[in-house]
Amino acid sequence: MLPELKTFMSIVEVNNIDKVIENLNISKATIYEHIKYLEQYFSSNIARISEKNEIAITESGSLLYKRAKQIFNIIDDTSIELIQNNDSIQGNIKLGVNFTLEEYVLPKFLSYFLKKYPNINVEIFSDHNQNICDRLHGNEFDIGLIEEIPSCRVFKQTRFLRDKMVLIIPYANTIKDISSYINEFKFKRWITRESSCSTRKFIELFLKENNINPEDIMMLGSNYAIKEAVKNNLGISIISKFVAEPAYKNDEICILPLDDSYERYFSYILNNEDISECSEIFLNELRSFCKRFYK
After folding, report:
1. DSSP state of 186
2. pTM of the model
3. What pLDDT is stored for residue 49 in this prediction?
4. What domains, with CATH codes, occur in the chain?
């Protein structure tokens, strides 16, 4: 009901349908729908709008406007109170974090999280997945954020984010240029990671499924290095969509989607289910954030 009340308040305050349409970025039909909804809900006529867009607010409409103002004032006050309440939450969280998450997911989330909870101090230690599991077992961290791996059986792995792998090639202006890459995969240099990295496993899977035996393979030590190598026409590769998308949006590389077998999950792991309030808040916010921004 809040959108409908907001529309009605704007009608009363602006007293001009065209201005309401412009200010709220809605159609005239939507305005009529909102008025009709409120009138049906409250069983009262609240406004009359003529064919010339002249507005007349009824006595019931004036009362509704007064109450709507009170509702939105309460919402504003509540928002301030909640922010003030967040300021009272204090503590420290130590995170062991997978490299991809540290570089491409956490910065955006932490910008949101630390603004909302300014008195929670977050320390981040990036490492390989298995090392994070080992160090968490030694109580070096409060939370581990890792790529889901079968070797970490000592901890329950709770998924919070899906990642899709994509095939990346140097930037091409035309479909014809992209097609030439697809037809010549085995003649291209493939850029890969070390054998312990899941990126390497996805590349090997793709090569096997497509009966490709590359003539030239280059191994690099990070996803960023792979992306930069492809950007500079050194070859082609398969990497995380999180790594590839910023370069794709800047017209530095091209992305070719792969099927669902080329996906992985990131999970959080805990050494103890009885976690601190700060850690619980962090995980709740992280799950919610990933659902909204990384569907």
Report:
1. G
2. 0.66
3. 82
4. 1-82 (1.10.10.10), 88-159+263-292 (3.40.190.10), 162-262 (3.40.190.10)
